[in-house]
Amino acid sequence: MRSYLTVSGAAALLLLAGAAPAVAAGDGADRSFTIEDPRITESSGLAASRAHPGIYWTHNDSDDGPYIYAVDSRTGKTLATITLRGVGQPRDVEAISLGPDGNLYVGDIGDNLNGSWDHVWIYRFPEPKQLKDATVRATQFDVKYADGPRNAEALMVHPTTGRVYIASKNEDGGGLYEGPAELTTGATNVFRRVGEVPWVTDGAFSPDGKELVLRSYFSARGYAFKDGRLGTDHAVQAPLQRQAESVTYTADGSALMFGTEGEQSDVVRVDIAGGGGGDSGAPSKDGGGASSATGEASGQQVKGSTLVGALVLAAVGALVLMNRRRKRD
Questions:
Q1: Containing H/E element for 131?
Q2: Which residues on adjacent β-strands are paired with residue 195?
Q3: What angle do CA 45, 291, 71 make, to 5 degrees?
Q4: 137-147 tens-digit pLDDT
Q5: Which residues are within 8 A (CB) of 108 and not within 5 positions of it... i.e. 6 or more apart?
Q6: How far is CA 299 from CA 163, 220, 267, 305, 324, in A?
Q7: What angle do CA 159, 265, 200 make, to 5 degrees?
Q8: Which among 163, 156, 143 has a CA at the least distance from the CA of 202?
Q9: Which of 51, 83, 209, 272 has the largest CB neighbor count within 10 A?
């Protein structure tokens, strides 16, 4: 979703544009890569395919139509474009997640005006068995929140229960919402608040369902997850990106993949300590907000260190000071 930021937020993003991670090409799958497709300019969600190793499903967030793209992490090229049939005109598609039933769930859940729509939609369709351009029939579900409309950018399907969760986006803190045990087409699906979360732009469950990672523009946190509720949390290493939009686990759970918006946007791999399980790594030494992370693809250091974080803060402070002086003048 296009974000409408404060002056300080805009300053931070301007600095990040000059400190975007330098992504090196790798020969194997699930490495850091750059999305090459010129049609994908606002990649807002990521989901790792289980049927096709190394393939990541993504989509634009608005003004694109009912299209889902299969991108090869080996090359950054789109191998298939899926057109959804049987759904209305998408408004603000913000997230995608793969369920244990083999279906992809697409969240048309964005709302820049934070409550202008009394309902949002989820689209569901089977993950294609073959990677080729196709038109598929999708099921559309109407969604409402028990405590009223809100903006959201994160939709996660639990990998064992199949239950759908949504994390709302609010700079003062959002909520984790739990959907019904099964989504239905005959009635509105009401999502109920079950936890408190920070500002969230995307989220993902670990393959074993024991961990939920939520990311924001400048940080990420992991939460223990049991019986549908959040447990203890810790910082997760995440790269600084120009507009941090998406996150997913690799299919084997050995790493997290962090994506961003823009033309030829980067997807950065961050390895998980221990690999393969639900643990998304111990908290970083500096608290994890804008920490450095090692890209496994080529051993490169992902730009986004404490030094860059300090420069961001300095730039923000300078711009705010200049803005105040202009107001006095």
A1: none
A2: 176
A3: 25
A4: 999 999 999 99
A5: 90, 91, 92, 93, 94, 120, 121, 122, 123
A6: 37, 22, 15, 16, 43
A7: 45
A8: 156
A9: 272
Give 266's strand partners: 34
- Which residue shows structure tokens 């969230």? 200
User: pLDDT tens across 249-307, in order?
Assistant: 999 999 999 999 999 999 999 999 876 554 444 433 333 333 333 343 333 333 333 33
C-alpha pair distances (Å), 274 with each of 213, 279, 282: 16, 7, 10
> Which of 102, 46, 104, 90 shows the shortest CA–CA distance to 244?
46
The DSSP bridge partners found for residue 157 are: 164
Q: Residues 108, 120: contact at Cβ < 8 Å?
A: yes
Three-state DSSP state, 225: strand
CA-based nearest residue to 144, from 97, 96, 104, 111: 111
In the numeric block, which tokens belong to residue 307? 């030094």
Exposure string over 145-166, b if 16+ CB within 10 A, otherwise e: beeebbbbbbbbbbbeebbbbb
pTM as predicted: 0.80
List, in order, residues 6 or more apart from 18 with CB less than 8 Å away. Answer: none
